[in-house]
Amino acid sequence: MGKEWTRKLASKGIMYWKTIALAILLTCVPISIVSFISWHVGNQYLIRQHQQNNEELVKDTVRQIDEQFSQLVQYALHMISNPILKPSLADTNFVDQFEKTQELSDTMYFIENGDPLIDQAYLYVEKQNKIMQPMLGLRPLEDQADRAAWKNIMQVEKGIFWTNHLARPFHQGGSSHAIVMKLPFNSQKPYGALVLYVNPAKVNLNANSEQVAFVLDGEDTLVGQSDASKQYPEVIPDIQGVLNTIKRSYDTQSHFQLPIEDDKLLVSTVSFEKMGGIWTFVSGTPSSAITAPTGPYKHVVLVYWGVSLLLALALSWFASKRMYRPIGWMVDLFREGKAETTIENNELKYIEEKWRQHRSVNQTLQSNLNQSIPKVREALINQFLSGQAAHLTESEISEKLQGLKLDITQQHFFINVCQIHSLSKDRGQLTAKDHQLLTYAAINLLHEMSERLASYVHTIDFMDGSFAVIGFVPAASPVKDLKSLLMELSTDMIDTLRDVLSMPATIVVNGPTEVWTNVPYLLAQARRALSYRSFTSASQLLEAAVVLKQANLEVEFHFELEQEFTHTLNLGLEKEAVEILIRFVEALQNDGAPEWVVHQGLTRLRNNLFRSMIQSNHNPYAIYDGMKLQEELEELRDANACIEWFHAKIIKPYIDALNRSYHQSMKHIVDEIIQTINVNYMSDLSLETFAMEADVSVSQLSKAFRQMIGSNYIDYLTSIKISHCKKLLVTTDMKISDIAKAVSYQPPYFNRMFKKLEGMTPGQYREQFNPVIGDKKQA
Questions:
Q1: What tens digit of pLDDT does each residue of 550-608 get?
Q2: Cβ distance 510 to 415 under 8 Å?
C-alpha cells in the first residue's frame, strides 16, 4: 500500500505540486501573518514604552558623567596653580636640589590622590626630557617612542585638552585616557605638562545589572563601561560605526538596534560637549529583558497558531485535489498508457521548450567560436614570433591565418618596439600595479594610433615595461613612402604618450618588409636596438637599422674615477663617494654611451668594489646576501635612478658594514674622551693631545668620533661648554666675562659664539631665563 501511494505521488507533475502550494499559501500565510503581527506589535509596544522611560534616566546619567569630569578639570586647574609648578622647574637640577625634588614628589602624590577619577599623575619637563610620578620617581624618557609621544603633546596649541593616544611611559600599562594641562597654564612658552590619567573603572555610569552602558570621547574611543557591557565586547565597533553616520552636536539623541547572540540590543545615545569635543553616552538593554513579561502569553499564541495551521493544511490538501482533477485527467490522456514516472512541464509547452533549448545551444556554440578566433589567431602569431613555428613556410602560415580570418597576402609589415620610462622624482615612484596599468594604457593607445596606417595590428607585452606593435599595411603604397609615413606615425606616438599619459618613452622602428617570415628577425633587431638608446629619461625615436650600424661605438672607461670611488668608499666617506659616483655616470653619458654601456660600467664599478672588499677582509656575499643586484640594475632606465639605486643598494650597506667593524679599542678611546670632556670642559682640550695619548692618528680618531657621536670634536666640545655657561647665566650672578674665562674662552669670542648658537647674546639669555634678573629689570 505504501509503495503504491509513493508511486502515485511520483507520477504527479509540477502543476499538481504548484496547485497544492498555492492552496497552502492562500490559507496558511494569512494565519501566520496575523499571529506574527499580534506577537510583534505587543513586543514593540513594550520596547517603545521602555525607550520613553529610559530617556530621562539617560539624561540624568549624562549630567552625572559631565559633572564628574567637570570636577576633575576644576580640580586639575586648581592644582596647577601650586607655586611649586613654576617655570623654573625647566632648569632645576633635581639631583642637587633634593629637598625641592621631594617636595615636588609629595605634591604629585597629593594631586594623584585628590580625585577618584585620577589613576596616575605625571609631571613632564620637556627641556630635560624627564617624567615625575609618585611611584616611579623622577626618570628620563629613554625610549624613543615614549620621547616622541610626550614631546608631541607640547605641539598641541590648547592649554588643556583630552587625549586617548598617550601611552603611559616605562611600560606601565593601563588606559591611555588622560587630561593634559600645559605648565604654566595658558602660557605662550610652556615648559612642560601635568598629565592626569583617568581610571575607567571609576566613571560612575548609574547602570543596573542588565544595562549595557558606554562613555565615548570626542574620537569615539571607549572611556568607561558598565559591568554588563563587558559581556558584549563585540558591540563596541558596531556602535562606533553607527555613530559615525550620525551628525552629532550638543544634546543630540538617537535610538537604534544591534544584533547580539540571538537577541537585539536596544541602544539610546545622548551627546554632550566636554573638553572641546562631542562625547557620547550609550545606553543599551537587551530586548529579551524588556519583553520578558510577555513570556507566559507566548505559549498561548503558539498553540493557537499551530491548531490554525493544521486545519489550514487539511483544507488546502482537499482544495488542491479538487482543482487538479481536470489537469490530471488530461495528463493521463497524453501518456497513452506509457510508463512515465514524472511529468515536469505542461505538454503544450514541452515541444516549445525543447526547441528553445536547441536554439540556445546553437547560439552559444556560435558565439564561443567567434570569441575564440581572435585569441587563437593571436596565440598563433605569438608562437611564430617567438620562434616556435619557424618550421612553417610563408604559404603555410598564410593558410593558417586565413583560416583564422586574417589575410597576410599582399601586405607589408612593420615593427614598433616601445619602452615606457619611470616617472620623475617630483611625481613620485610607480608601484608595480601602476606600471602595469600605464603599460596597458600605452599598448591600447599605440594600437589605436597604428590603425590609422595598418589594416590589422598585433601587440605583444614583454612584461618588463616594453611592448611591440606589429602592423599589417596593404601593399598599395611603395616601401619608400611607407617608411616616411611610419616615422611620422612613430613621432606622433611619442608626442601622444607624453601629452596624454605624461610618460616619456623610447620607440624603435624597424621595417617595413614584404615577407612575413622576416618579422621575427625584425622584432629581435628592434628589441636589441632598444638597449642602444641614450641613457636619459627623455623620449627618443630610434631606427633599428641605423642604430645597429653604430653599435661598435667606442666609449672611454674612466679608471681614475673608479679607483677614486673605491678608495673614498673604503675610508667610509659616504657623501664623497656619492659625488664621485655622480661624476662617473655623467662622464659616461658625456661620452655618448648608450644604456647597455652605462649598465656595464656600473657593473664593473660594483665588481671592482667587491674585489676591494675581499682584500680588506669584508665578505660582499654576506653584505648583499639575497639581493638580485644585476637584475635590478638592468631594469633601470635613466641616470638618476641608477645613482639612487647604487647609493641605496651598494654604498649604504657597505658603509653600515664598515661602521659595525670598528675596533672595540677605538670605541673605548672615544668613551674616555667623552668622560674627560664632561669633567674638564673648562680646560683647553685638543683632539691632537688625545690622539697622541692613545697612539692613533688624528684623522682616524676624528673620523671615529664623528661616526660614533654624530658630530665632530669641536662642535661637541663647544656644545658642552655653552651648556655649562647657560647654567651659570641662569643660576648665578657671575659676570659674563668671568663665565667666558671659566670655560677657557675670550669674552669677545664667547659673545660671538653664544649668539651664533642661541640666537641671542649672553645678557639677553640671562634676562629671559633668570627670573631674579628679569624681575629686577621690570622693577
A1: 655 555 666 777 777 777 776 667 788 888 888 887 777 775 567 767 777 778 878 87
A2: yes
Residues contacting residue 508 through CB under 8 Å, at least 6 positions apart: 415, 416, 417, 418, 526, 527, 529, 530, 542, 543, 544, 547
| Residues 715-730 as b or e (16 or more Cβ within 10 Å = b) | ebbbebbbebbbebbb
Contacts of 218 (CB under 8 A, 6+ apart): 162, 274, 275, 276, 277, 278, 279
CA 384 from chain centre, in angstroms, equals 44
> Is residue 535 within 8 Å of residue 591, measured between CB atoms?
no
Does residue 226 contact residue 207 with C-beta atoms inside 8 Å?
Answer: yes
Q: Does the pTM of the predicted model rise above 0.90?
A: no
The Cα–Cα gap between 314 and 322 comes to 13
* Residue of 178 and 45 predicted with greater confidence: 178
pLDDT digits (tens, 9 = 90+) for 617-627: 667 777 777 67
Backbone phi, psi, residue 577, to 5°: -65, -40
Amino acid found at 307: V
- The C-alpha atoms of residue 422 and residue 431 are separated, in whole angstroms, by 10
At which residue does the C-alpha cell 588622560 appear? Answer: 178
Report how far apart, in Å, the C-alpha atoms of 516 and of each of 401, 471, 520, 527 are. 12, 11, 8, 18
Side-chain half-sphere exposure of 612, counting CA atoms within 13 A: 18
Residue 52: pLDDT band with limits 50, 70, 90:
low
d(C-alpha 779, C-alpha 776), whole Å? 5
User: Distance of CA 93 to CAs 41, 62, 471, 609, 680, Å?
Assistant: 74, 45, 83, 52, 20
Reading the block at residue 12, the C-alpha cell is: 504527479
Owner of C-alpha cell 639631583: 95
Whether residue 450 contacts residue 489, with contact meaning beta carbons closer than 8 Å, is answered with yes
**CB under 8 Å to 568, separation ≥6 — which residues?**
576, 577, 580
Contact 61, 284 (CB under 8 A): no
Q: Are 393 and 448 in contact, with CB atoms under 8 Å apart?
A: no
As a whole number of angstroms, the distance between CA 378 and CA 458 comes to 7
DSSP annotation string for 291-338: SGGGHHHHHHHHHHHHHHHHHHHHHHHHHHHHHHHHHHHHHHHHHTT-
- How far is the C-alpha of 171 from the C-alpha of 666, rounded, in Å? 35
Element (H, E) at 215: strand 212-216
CB atoms inside a 10 Å sphere around CB 132: 22
Helix and strand numbers (H, E) in the chain are 28, 16
Longest CA–CA span in the chain (Å) reads 130
CA distance 278 to 10: 68
CA distance 159 to 276: 11
Cβ neighbours around 486 below 10 Å, total: 25
Segments in 386-511 forming alpha helices (H): 394-403, 432-450, 479-500
Phi-psi group of 271: left, alpha or beta (phi > 0 → left; psi -120 to 50 → alpha; rest → beta): beta
Residue 570: strand, helix, or coil: helix
Tell the burial category of 526 from Cβ atoms under 10 Å away from its Cβ (0-12, 13-18, 19+). Answer: buried
Residue 698 has pLDDT above 80, yes or no: no
For residue 575, the Cα-to-chain-centroid distance in whole angstroms is 31
Give me the mean pLDDT over the 753-773 stretch: 82
Looking up cell 627618443 gives: 540
- Cβ–Cβ under 8 Å, residues 125 and 90: yes
